[in-house]
Amino acid sequence: MKRILLPTDFSDNAFNAIRYALNLFREEETTFYLLNTFTPVSYHTGYLIENPAPYGMEDIAMINSKRDIERTEEKIKEEFDNPKHSFVRLSVFNTLIGEIKSVVEKYNIDLIVMGTKGATGAKEVFIGTHTMYTIKKVNCPVIAVPSGFEFEKPKDVLFPTDYNLSIDNKYLPLVKEICDKYICRLNILNAYYGVALGPEQHKVKEELDKYFKNITHIFHIAEGVDVLEAVEDFQKKYKIDLLIMIHNKHSFFENLLFKPVINQVAYHTNIPFLVIPSIERIA
Q1: Is residue 233 part of a domain?
Q2: Could you give the CA distance from residue 222 to residue 204 in angstroms, rounded to a whole number?
Q3: Which pTM was predicted?
Q4: Which of 73, 115, 198, 260 has the highest CB neighbour number within 10 Å of its CB?
Q5: Which of 105, 123, 145 is where one domain is finished?
């Protein structure tokens, strides 16, 4: 049984991400963990020191959180009514990222699904702050779902890579699972500036070819452009339903994630993307 964490602030954007997860895993036995965290804005350091067990404000926030998370579950069941799915409600007084880390470890979470919209909802922002820090700080795959995205069965998946990854990555089977379930075509894209692949990168490419041998996959090369430009160009030519990235210690992902996004590439907010943590390559 799969275990999926669904953080929510009870916004439309958060429920849209929940809806995507419920559709993507519609046919799979799954336990969904609905998580809401709260930290009342009136709390401050001095208050917490003087009142180590404050009464009132936290209780009210907890009551509101439990009420709204129950309503969220009711809304889910009204819309989906899927006997394969079960739910665990979590209302916690904590920071979001801190609690996500705790829940992932405590419940052995397989995947986190959350929205991408930041606090301002600004189009210039690639992804929201909470999503960004979840990807950076939490050792668990994350699917970030754009605001307003309506679920479509993924058919074409884009996987940009510099081939500095490990085929032993324990999260890689999730990519294979999704592609196999939806009979996807996996497009593996490498972008580079005139420097050919080294021996280790060639080896990883060959390993990926073998690993995905039972899945339709195509290798693509984009020369003379950075990853962001390569992804944009590919998006113009093909309808991509899911973007997959590995968050490794190399610069390419960090450059993509934090590079200012101009209006011409705001399309990024229209595609769900799966980010999986890396592991050190085993020689």
Answers
A1: yes
A2: 18
A3: 0.85
A4: 115
A5: 145
